[in-house]
Amino acid sequence: MSKVVAIFLSEFDMKSGYKLQWSYTTLQNFSFDAVEYKSLPSGIHDFKNATTFISHKSNNKIYYGLSCFKQFQINKQDDSNDRNNLKMFSIGILCEPTKNEWRPNEFINNGWEYIDEINEVLDKLEEDLIKNKGIDFNDYSNVLKNIGSTTNLTVPKESSNVTNHLLLNLPKLFEYLGPLIFTIYKQSLLRKNILIFNECHHNNNQQDTYHIITSFSYLISILSVIPKEIKVNKNLSAQQPLYNIGLNESSTGLLKDYKLNGYIAVTSDEILKTHPVYDIGVEIENNKSRIFKQSNETQSMKSTIRDYNKFQSLYCNLMSKEIKFTNKSNISTDDLNSINSRNDDEEISRNKSYTDISPNQIINEPSWWKSDAIETITWSESFWFAFSWFASAGQQLNEDEDEDLIDLQTKNKKILDLIDLLNIIGFFHKLTIKWFKYIDELIIETNEELQLIKNDFSSLLQEDQDQNQDQELTNKINLNISYQDMIEMELDPYSLQDIEFLKEFILLYYNNKVDNVNIGYNLTKICC
């Protein structure tokens, strides 16, 4: 369970602006600097109720938390369009980020368990303000201080209240990003600084898009975490989620501290698009999303057709069921706060391929998915596929069946269980493991080939043999990646975006072993 260490009450007044009305902390010298801006992000006044996940830095330490917003009229009889008749409050909490070797366990300590409790306090605040036409916020000290302290810490698994957990927004992540989810997953693996622009301020159905979209910071970080069995630099093991940030963050040390190894954050301040605080931007509107590089905002990044095929199967599995979650798998609150890799006991074969699966047809698919989110097929790729189809008598290039996606399909289930969401995350973890293991084998093979060449050369110059062997242990290699290698890694060799991704991936995680990456070195003229 999240441990609350700071609580605050913010108000937005139509005349005087942002106010921090009350705050309390159990820590010494804790700074609440600018929390009122985090808890009342731009555009939130278009909602009656909203929840925003946040992060906050104090004394060189990051804390995760959330704020619950409520807007109401003091006088129900007055004009509802009179802004002077409106009150806007947010109650926020910040929690202790429990240190853990598995870094994602730190990120989820944001108080999601207490959302209902905070909203109850906001309801009471509304009731008292309407009744008394005013209030002394110090009178609310005891009520606010009790947030998080009265929760039963020994809730049995069968009764765990997980309805507000960020994981339950995973179907929304698929719905909002479409096939671009694979594009952002890859950029997150490269530990790029990713900034999601929440442009869903006007929402006719009053769906809490702040709760949904700020949770994407955590969800994308979980999808792109390096599974435990893969050993990498700890700073690269997971993308740092910062949740919601604002314009004021561009002048604080929060972004600077995490920019080197990559962060992922959400903002509703569109002006940040012109600030060089991010590498990859993600625009999310009410009916469309777009990914772009900060260095070239007009050029959209897209998904490959191979990734789109995988997305179709995953999406159909998620959306074919009623979005009404069950917990028959008895996942506890503590379990959800300790989401691990789903592949600890599984072997990922280098030769196993999931690329050429039979895509499922998505009913009522948004038109922008195909028109704006997927790369077009090049003439050379079309020619190559036609040639391969003819050469294999109509068979697909890869005959291996996608067992993982088949396992995800639960034919008789109509309602999603939490275990279904964990299996979706596991699919991305398996793909990450596959890339690491495949590259590991390529490096081993390359080193073996180099050693054979050096041994042959050393037989001619016997006196240099020992020196050459010692040198081989320290030299970096040039790694050659072929067309077929990319196919088996489920990447698209015809996509410049995938080629660039693979090069950056290898040079990022294998910089102590690989000096240069050559991709497509043995492509024949017929497929180039």
How many angstroms does the end-to-end distance come to? 55 Å
Secondary-structure-derived class: alpha/beta
> Could you estimate the helical fraction of the residues in percent?
25-40%
**Number of separate strands:** 15
The strand order across the widest sheet is 7-8-6-9-10-11
Q: What Rg is obtained from the alpha carbons, in whole angstroms?
A: 26 Å
The largest pleated sheet is described as:
6 strands, mixed
Mean pLDDT metric = 81
How many helix segments? 17
Strand content: 15-25%
Shape designation: elongated
- Uncertain residue segments: 151-160, 344-358, 383-401, 523-528
Can you put this structure into words, describing what you see?
The strands form 4 sheets. The protein has a 6-stranded mixed β-sheet, with helices on both faces. It has a 5-stranded antiparallel β-sheet with strand order 2-1-5-4-3. Strands 12-13 form a two-stranded parallel ribbon. With 528 residues, it is of the alpha/beta class. The chain is 36% helix and 19% strand. Mean pLDDT is 81; it is low at 151-160, 344-358, 383-401 and 523-528. Among the domains are: 1-164; 431-527, no CATH class. Helix 14 runs antiparallel to helix 15 (465-474). A hairpin with a 2-residue loop joins strand 10 and strand 11.
